[in-house]
Amino acid sequence: MPRRLFHLYQRSRIFNINFNVVAAGLLAILIAKMPVAYVSDWIGHEHKLWITLAAAAIDMVVDVLIYYGLHWLANHWRPPSRRPKIRKSNRAFFKDATLIQFERAILSPLYYIVAGGLMYILQHQGIKPSWAFVWAFASGIFVTRIVHTIWGLRTGRFRNDSHDDDPHHAETLDASHQREPSQHAARS
């Protein structure tokens, strides 16, 4: 099953883009939670707007770095045992990842209004800045994933690569559905 799930991750653009963005966002939140707590202690808990802005900056840097790594994994890396059998993506890594990041940048006002606004409100409700950050920025990810997915489906950006001009596509499908001999023996 993990092999099939990884194959789906590498072949389904709607799945891998959304997974990458959510994973990058949640990992960024996890990594940035402690720096946000330290910054809020350093700035002072009474400066809720400055804490919110610092949290947004920390989150943005960590998120983008993680996203580029996950995008490369999903769309350009091939496991050594499958390299000869799997077709390469027609998309150039940096161009493709940057285009998705550009779309995310266009959606960033929505993300930061939801995330920053909710964090600011939660802090005023007495929630510690680091936990307000976690809840608010996770909510921002959820909202922007819905909007970006609808946008990607309407524009065709989330469509998988065309296989019409790929002579190795049949080999790729056959290779992905065949088990290795050792797997056949283990199941018998």
Structural description of this entry:
- This protein has 188 residues and is mainly α.
- It has one domain (2-159).
- The chain has 7 helices and no strands.
- The chain has helices at 2-11, 13-43, 48-75, 93-124, 129-155, 169-177, 181-187.
- Helix 2 runs antiparallel to helix 5.
- It is elongated and about 55 Å long.
- The two termini are 18 Å apart.
- Mean pLDDT is 77; it is low at 163-188.
Kindly name the structural category. mainly alpha
Order of helical and strand elements: HHHHHHH
Give the quaternary arrangement of the chains: single chain
Q: For the terminal residues, how far apart are their CA atoms?
A: 18 Å
Number of helices: 7
